[in-house]
Structures are given as C-alpha cells and as structure tokens.
C-alpha cells in the first residue's frame, strides 16, 4: 500500500443546474473517466454564473487537488463568464489565444464567419493552452492544473477523450458489485466487520426498493484485484451463511 | 424590487456519486422543490463519506445561507456517517431521539425488530427535531436551519413533501422558455441587450445539437410574471426580426 493517491475536483458552473432545469451529467461522466486515469474525484461544487462564486471555488480547490476541472460557461453568450472568472482567480489578464482564433475561423468559415460574439470563445486566461474539441468549434482550455471544459455533456466527453492518457495518475480504482434481496440494516455488522478485516478496501452499501421488496447492492473498491476479490469472497460467504442469495454484478 | 432573497445550499454526501457509480438526482429534485417554496438553491457541494470533508462543508455553508440541506449517509451501515459528522461540525453530542426510536420500533415490529444497527438511525445531533419519512422507517432530521435528508431519491422526495409549505421563503422564481433553431453565437448580442433592457430578469441560453442541427433554448427568469412576459415578448420580436422561428415552451 502507501501508493500516492491522485485527486481531482470539479466545479460545475451554471444557473441551469442550480435551478433544477437541467440534470447534470458531467459529475458522473468525469468521475468515470477519472477512475480510468487513476485519479479520484475528491469533491465537486456546483456554483451559479456569478464571478465571485467561481473565484472562491477555483481558489479553494485548485491548490488542494492535483487537478481541477470546470464544466460550463465557455460559450459565446452574456452568461458565459467562466474564462473571466478563472482569470480573475488566477490574477492574470484575459487574452485572445491565436490558436483558438484559428480553430474558430476555420470552423465558422462556412457558417457565417467569425463574429464578435464567436470570437469570445477564443478568449483564455493568459498562459493557457488548448484542449481539442472534436464536436463543435470552441476548444477547451488548460491553465496549469486547471482544465476548463464545455458544459454540454457530449462536447465535454469529446474533450475528455482528447485528454485520455495525458494526465499523470496512480493505480485505477477497481470495483466489483454484488447484490442481495436483504435489508441493509440486517447485515450492517457483516459489512462493517468485513471492511475492517480487509485493509485497503472500501465497501459501499446502496439500498433500494424494487418490485415491492427491499434489497441492496454492495460495491467493493480497491486498487488491486486480489484485494477486491478476497473481500467479495468474504462478503458472499457471510451472506450465504445467513441464508441469503447473492447476485453477482448487482441487482 | 428589493425583496429579500432566500437561499439554500445542498451538501450531497456519498462516495457513490463521486465514483460515478450513481447518477445524482437530488440536486435537480431539491432545486425544483425550493423554487416553489420561494427559496433559491445557491450552491451545492458533493463530498465523500469522510467526516472532515462533511464538517468543512457544513460549517462553510450553514452560516451564509438561510437553509442548508444534506442528502445521503443516514442509513444503518458503517459508511453512514452524516449524523456524527454534522454533530461534530455543530460541537454537540449525538443522542438517540426518543421519537425516532418510537418510529423505528413501530416500523420494524413486523420486520424482525429494532436491532443495534437499525437503532443507529434514531441517532441525531442533540437538539434536533424529526422530519417525517412516509416511504421507509428512518426519519429525516432538522437541527436549526439544517435539514438532514435521505439520499435515495424517492425517500428524499417524501421528506420534502412533508416539509412543503413549512419554510419561510420569498417570491417563487417564475420562468418561461422559448426555443429556436439558431446557433446561440448568432444572437448573443440580442440576448445580452434584451437582458440589460429588462431589470430583474435573467436570460439563460442553453445550446444543443439535435437531428443534425444546432439550436438553443432560452429561459427567462424573474419573480413577477409581467417581467417574464415582457422580456419573452422582446426576445421573440428580436428573433422574428432576423427571420427565426420561435417554439414556445422550448425545443
């Protein structure tokens, strides 16, 4: 054990999430992608389109995590203030990135040209590099350990694809899930003791109510497959000893 | 104008959200419910099942918002540490709430009885009252302006139902949506100027790519219907003046 754990934080920027209008999908999407890179999503904040709120979150999270991601607010309209807010947090000016301007000029050549509004999407905090966007014109932005990505989930996904394998991380977190038609309160002791007996492993318990019955899925997580498998075996044995059936892969 | 704005924050507690395993639904659900109560969801944090992370978030958010909600981590298993963490944040002891114990005794009378593990769900920070749970046994908890709710969305929903109309709020935020098959970058100026011309109104622009075409929905928000309607009328007129069709209610 004792391997270095790499962490990331995410700031989701957007009134549309906080108003309940839009169901966020980027938390789950980024978390899943990070797991494969060997990086853990350690914390998330969802903030409104308000500069001071973004500045506070950026400065709180960028120092205590290896990476900071933001999604949302990098489009061409008046409510897209992410770049200005992050530049303010970093105390650097906003500049037009020549590479981003080229990308946008090409993209909009057959779509009515690069207007003033569209040129807004070439603005970056000074010192930034670009994250390719294969889906639509405007690129994402990298500044130090900060990755400024689009908010529309399929565009975010394209930007993450472009970053795959480029970030240093540790061992990916592996997991295995089993399910059982049991009230979690009936086997709380088994879960606690099994976790305690297996160093480096965490067991999550996720109850549900389905088809008129209670059940729960149990997710075992660790960075080495033998640890996961040993803990699952102990858990299955414990459940079977009390007469419960186990569904591999979860219910 | 000048009416008092009531705000709430939400802390989503759970490794299952940060691992990407579970798609959170409580942000959108709470946001929608709060709007009807005349309260705005001002910020959200998603934190792991780690006491220090919960303590930090609780103490940061409970003071600067009228209300603080938490979801998750109040079940019977070892990873359910919300009550202990919030009690630590408040510097009060954890006690068994007699009312909660009664509720659980009744609930489990025909379900195998109130075990030690199940009794964990009667534990509250000292000084708390209960939030009824119509869906399953364990109640939610109120402590001052903090509401400690379940994480399973349909149970959270039942607890919110029980709280409906009991919290002081301001005017509900009203909204109206129109959509158009237009690239938002083409009408960024129209959006900015229309918002500027209508005090107390915010316009959100939400682009999408569907059926091979780009479009956007525009959400106008204010606390008075005439404000919303006047701004929508101006926006529709502006879009039609440039030859765009408008879909009432959004696309």
Structure write-up:
The structure is a homodimer of 251-residue chains. By secondary structure, chain A is of the alpha/beta class. Chain A has two domains: 6-163, 3-Layer(aba) Sandwich (Molybdenum Cofactor Biosythetic Enzyme, Chain A); 174-248, 2-Layer Sandwich (Alpha-Beta Plaits). Helix content of chain A is 37%, strand content 27%. The first copy, chain A, is built from nine helices and twelve strands. Chain A has helices at 15-18, 26-37, 51-64, 82-90, 98-108, 116-119, 153-163, 188-197, 225-241; strands spanning 6-13, 39-47, 67-71, 94-96, 123-125, 129-131, 140-143, 146-149, 174-180, 202-210, 213-222, 247-248. A six-stranded mixed sheet of chain A has the order 2-1-3-8-7-6, sandwiched between helices. In chain A, strands 10-11-9-12 form a four-stranded antiparallel sheet. The first copy, chain A, has a two-stranded antiparallel sheet with strand order 4-5. In chain A, a hairpin with an 8-residue loop joins strand 6 and strand 7. In chain A, helix 2 (26-37) runs parallel beside helix 7. In chain A, 48% of the residues are buried. Chains A and B meet through helix 1, helix 2, strand 2, helix 6 and helix 8 of A and helix 1, helix 2, strand 2, helix 6 and helix 8 of B. Strand 2 of chain A pairs antiparallel with strand 2 (39-47) of chain B, so a sheet runs across the interface.
């Amino acid at each position: 054990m004792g391997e270095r754990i790499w962490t990331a934080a995410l700031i989701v920027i957007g009134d549309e999430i906080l108003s309940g209008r839009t169901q966020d999908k980027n938390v789950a999407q980024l978390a899943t992608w990070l797991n494969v890179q060997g990086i853990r999503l350690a914390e998330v904040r969802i903030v409104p389109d308000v500069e001071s709120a973004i500045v506070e979150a950026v400065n709180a999270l960028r120092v205590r995590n290896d990476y900071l991601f933001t999604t949302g607010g990098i489009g061409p309209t008046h409510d897209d203030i992410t770049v200005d807010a992050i530049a303010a947090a970093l105390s650097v000016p906003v500049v037009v990135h020549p590479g981003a301007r080229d990308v946008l000029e090409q993209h909009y050549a057959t779509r009515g040209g690069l207007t003033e509004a569209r040129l807004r999407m070439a603005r970056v905090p000074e010192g930034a590099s670009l994250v390719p966007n294969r889906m639509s014109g405007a690129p994402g932005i990298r500044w130090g350990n900060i990755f400024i990505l689009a908010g529309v989930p399929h565009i975010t996904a394209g930007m993450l694809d472009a970053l795959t394998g480029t970030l240093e991380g540790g061992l990916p977190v592996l997991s295995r899930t089993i399910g059982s038609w049991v009230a979690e309160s009936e086997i709380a002791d088994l879960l606690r003791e099994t976790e305690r007996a297996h160093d480096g492993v965490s067991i999550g318990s996720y109850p549900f109510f389905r088809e008129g019955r209670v059940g729960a899925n149990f997710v075992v997580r660790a960075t080495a497959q033998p640890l996961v498998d040993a803990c699952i075996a102990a858990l299955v044995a414990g459940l079977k000893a009390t007469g419960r059936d186990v569904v591999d892969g979860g219910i």
